[in-house]
Amino acid sequence: MGRFQSESQQQPDYELLSDGQLMRRVRDDDFDAFEALVRRHHHSVYGVAYRMLGDATEAEDLTQQTFLRIFNAAGRYEPSARFTTWMFTIVRNLVFNELRRRGSREHVSIDSSEEGGDGIGQSRQIPDMASLSPDAVMLHAELESEVQAALETLPEQQRMAMVLLRYEELSYEEIARTLQTSLASVKSLVFRARETLRTRLKKYLNFTATNA
Amino acid sequence: MDDWDKKDELWRLMGKVSRPEPSQWLVANIVREARKSHETSWFGERVKAFKTMWVGVVAIAVLFAFLPVFYITPTKQPAADMDEVAEVKPAKAAWDEDAVLNALDAFEEHEKEGLWLADL
């Protein structure tokens, strides 16, 4: 323990270090570097896990597993690709394992997904709700649950591609590397996902178009 | 299948959904678990090294314990066995060679007189 304390006295500002530099420090058992890495990326990992699994507790558990894997694999980490691509590949593997473990429960049909709004949005941070009218707050909550429910109707790969593209703003190339598939395949996945979501969220699309 | 236009209605609608927030303890929990995992693996490695060392020490002790036994065990046969073999050979050499040759000569003569060799 003393070793870490004495090192921290001469440590640089971790916020300024790149992911690769932090990983090199993590390899040397630098827990402060690891904490900086977790602080930097835990929202993204949690966000993807939550949108894929639709459950706050499972999403936190998966986030923890992801970072523990990163910590344990730090010695083998090769900075050939972007750190986030490697990180989301781990997330993807854990998420798909979890969905397979759940079995067919997750593969809800479009008809049965009407009840998918239960419990969704419990762990969301509602942005500045005090400034909104009660109607607007309700509409926002409804929109969130509907978007999540619509996402959950998508097959695993389409959902993952959509979440990484829209919410993590990864490029198509990075998504292809994360999902270990071709660029053309990713474009096809996103195209089909968009068509499904457009149909599912038609009511809200019209509403936002008229209120824009 | 072109890249998704960020002015697209669906893109904007999905952007209205707020970011899910993890609990404020998540980072601390992850770092604590990593420390625990690191300490466990550190301790495990030491236990493994300790076990390996003891297995080596026991193996060497056993080897040294049995070395005197190898040195005491005789590697040559007793002289009495050698004498017994030496006695057998002269017994074989004691055959009467003349008697054997005479017997063979007699057999050859008998065969020459035999009817079944007459055609040869």
Keyword list:
heterodimer; A: 212 residues; mainly alpha; Rna Polymerase Sigma Factor, Chain: A; Arc Repressor Mutant, subunit A; 2 domains; 0% strand; disordered N terminus; B: 120 residues; 4 helices; 71% helix; elongated
Quick structural gist:
The complex is a heterodimer of chains A (212) and B (120). With 212 residues, chain A is mainly α.
Task: Provide an overview of this structure.
The complex is a heterodimer of chains A (212) and B (120). Chain A is mainly α. Chain A has two domains: 1-108, RNA polymerase sigma factor, region 2, helix turn helix motif (Rna Polymerase Sigma Factor, Chain: A, Orthogonal Bundle); 111-212, Winged helix-like DNA-binding domain superfamily/Winged helix DNA-binding domain (Arc Repressor Mutant, subunit A). Chain A has helices at 2-8, 19-27, 31-53, 56-72, 83-102, 134-152, 156-166, 172-179, 183-200, 202-211. Chain A is globular. Chain A starts with a helix and ends with a helix. In chain A, 34% of the residues are buried. Chain B is mainly α. Chain B has one domain (9-117). Chain B has helices at residues 9-15, 26-72, 79-93, 97-112. The N and C termini of chain B lie far apart (106 Å). The mean pLDDT of chain B is 77. Chain A binds chain B through residues 29, 31, 34-35, 38-39, 42-43, 46-47, 50-51, 56, 59-60, 63-64, 67-68, 71-72, 123-127, 140, 143-144, 147-148, 165-167, 172, 187-188, 190-191, 194, 197-198, 201, 204-205, 208-209, 212, and chain B through 1-4, 9-23, 26-27, 29-31, 33-35, 37-38.
